[in-house]
Amino acid sequence: MIPGFKQETTNPARILVVDDDREMCQFLADVLGEEGYRVEMVHDGPSAVQRYRAECFDLTITDLMMPRMRGTELVKQLKEIDAHALVLLITAFGSIESAVEAMHAGAFHYVTKPFRTDEILLQVKRALEQHNLQSEIERLRQQVHSHYGFENIIGQSA
User: Fold this and answer.
1) Has residue 84 got a pLDDT over 90?
2) H or E stretch covering 90
3) What does DSSP assign to residue 7?
4) What is the pLDDT of residues 24-49, one digit of tens each?
5) Contacts (Cβ under 8 Å, ≥6 apart) of 6
6) Phi, psi torsion values for 61, nearest 5 degrees
7) Would you say 87 and 74 are in contact if contact means Cβ atoms under 8 Å apart?
8) Would you say 124 and 59 are in contact if contact means Cβ atoms under 8 Å apart?
9) 128-131, long-range: CB within 8 Å, 24+ apart, which pairs?
10) What does the pLDDT read at residue 3?
């Protein structure tokens, strides 16, 4: 466990882990679970899309190279479901081209395997902070609109 990374248990972030390598999936679920996150696992892209449609997640961590659907395609589909979807891509086949492809698809970040536990936890923390900032901005926009919207303008005329 990394000091200062402990997720608050009052409302733990929900993370979807997608990887065809079941051992990697379980490893990530164990590491993230120890930090207080609520983790669900699926083992392919179509299952991830189906699960995400049923219930949105705060963060999705997915492998880049999987059968049935590449991680970049999963990123695109999740962004279609939820424009604010945050996806962290992991891969053992790291290259500049795949990193650029991941960012163009809309991934939050790209991590190459093997990675250190503290590295993945740091990226998860950064992604969730981004998620919280996006939520706060949206809440404030709605608040400003409801308070200063056109329907709230009151005036007098002769």
Assistant:
1) no
2) strand 87-91
3) P
4) 999 999 999 999 999 999 999 999 99
5) 35, 36
6) -110, 120
7) yes
8) yes
9) 128/7, 128/13, 128/58, 128/59, 128/86, 130/86, 131/13, 131/58, 131/59, 131/84, 131/86
10) 43
Q: Quote the CA–CA distance of 94 and 81 in Å, as a whole number.
A: 27
Q: Which residue has the tokens 């699960």?
A: 51
Tokens of 73: 């395609």
Average of pLDDT values for 3-29?
A: 79
pLDDT category of residue 94 using cuts at 50, 70 and 90:
low
Question: What is the rounded CA–CA span in Å between residue 59 and residue 14?
Answer: 7
39 SS3 class: strand
